[in-house]
Amino acid sequence: MRFIKAVLSCTLLVGMSVAHAAPKDPGAQSASPIPVIQAVLTSPPWVPPPTQRKQPAKVVVELEVIEKEMPISEGVSYTFWTFGGTVPGSFIRVRQGDTVEFHLKNHPSSKMPHNIDLHGVTGPGGGAASSFTAPGHQSRFTFKALNEGIYVYHCATAPVGMHVANGMYGLILVEPPQGLPKVDKEYYVMQGDFYTTGKYREKGLQPFDMEKAIDEKATYVLFNGAEGALTGEKAITAKVGETVRLYVGNGGPNLVSSFHVIGAIFDEVRYEGGTNVQKNVQTTLIPAGGAAVVTFKAKVPGSYVLVDHSLTRAFNKGALAILKINGEEDKSIYSGKEVDEVYLGDRAQPSLAAVTTATQAAAAGTLTKDEQIKAGQQLFAGTCSVCHQGNGAGLPGIFPPLAKSDFLLGDLRRTIGVVLNGMSGKVTVNGTEYNSVMPPMNQLNDDEVANILTYVTNSWGNTGNPVSAADVKKVRAAKGVAKAESAH
Ligand SMILES: [Cu+2]
Description:
Blueprint: H1 2-11, E1 16-19, E2 34-38, E3 58-73, E4 76-83, E5 92-95, E6 99-106, E7 117-118, E8 138-144, E9 149-154, H2 160-165, E10 169-175, E11 185-194, E12 204-205, H3 210-214, E13 220-223, E14 236-239, E15 243-252, E16 257-262, E17 266-270, E18 278-281, E19 283-286, E20 290-297, E21 302-308, H4 311-316, E22 320-326, H5 341-344, H6 353-364, H7 369-383, H8 385-388, H9 406-410, H10 412-421, E23 423-429, E24 432-438, H11 446-456, H12 469-477, H13 479-486
Helix pairs in contact: 6-7, 7-11, 10-12, 10-13, 11-12
Bound molecules: copper (II) ion.
């Protein structure tokens, strides 16, 4: 529905006029006029309709740079620099042989100058040299789309890495003259890595961290510019029997993507965005500043998870999106049972509103125990329940219980230490010995640990005082000490 709306509103803007062509234009019929067409641009995940033109045209593209604050994760915002107000920028679709008149505008509210380098342009800088545009100005250049393919465009203003890290990239499709084979659904997905001074999911407005960017230590790796941009209500969809085509780009600035859809095999991949087609592909590598076109038929209903198969990026940095396929089961292909919720935890559908409420309350100094418990419950589901189970009962012989655990309730400082530093070796809980390993959970910030433990110490029959972020901070500072204690 959103797609139709986008296309309709764009179609109204399409101005079609006819210019009497310069006959030297090689792609054009010598005497016939070249149509002048206003390009239809779409916001991700939508793709403009096929050009369906038999001849080249002069296509006018108007793209505006807008610097704006937008959510990057639940309760976290970031000042993005965008082509067209979205990350990735507007999708541009032209036909091989078209002459593209490109207008780059830089909104008056911008603080920075910007330009554009389109990988589909043949010429120095891919347009960058001709498009340097100060705030409140616009520039224009023209290029001929000589080669078909799917191409990345990006800002190339110094410091280039910073402009790109702030979201300045998108895709331009140059269709082959005969067009691409017809499919049922087309979507626009683009990966990017982001660098914030705060930790992953640390709340509030997060500034760009140049040092992390230079070290290539991404805080977030995302599809379409925000955690949850393509999950839950915003998941992309298809019906059983439909053919889905994804235009997948990678803006970088630094990381290459091992693009994979959990549970699907790509029938065809136009790898590196080129014209060769590879068939039956599980994972396709998309370099920074590169793109691919993947096509597959939706055969079995369910939730399919798009990931960068460098998996901590998917599960700990946000590189995760959902394709929801609706329709009839086909038991001859797959016996049933949905994607395991435990596998995805809270990642598939980040409903972390209570976490945001608690963070805001903590900042305002009004945080209540009840708010901590609600936030902790959501975080526990995504972080701890996979082992200790949603009801805190653990699993016999492997994961000790948190419900009514004498160990946990006996020494809160020690318990905080277990969460931050992990645990290994023998531990006795309610008279039963466990000898296993819990990995450190030190990716959680002080607020998150405090809220989780307030939830844990006030659930399943446990009762206790709230744990404060200050308590956690103290234990984190005394890391070595806590480790020694928890080993006993
Ligand atoms: Cu820029």
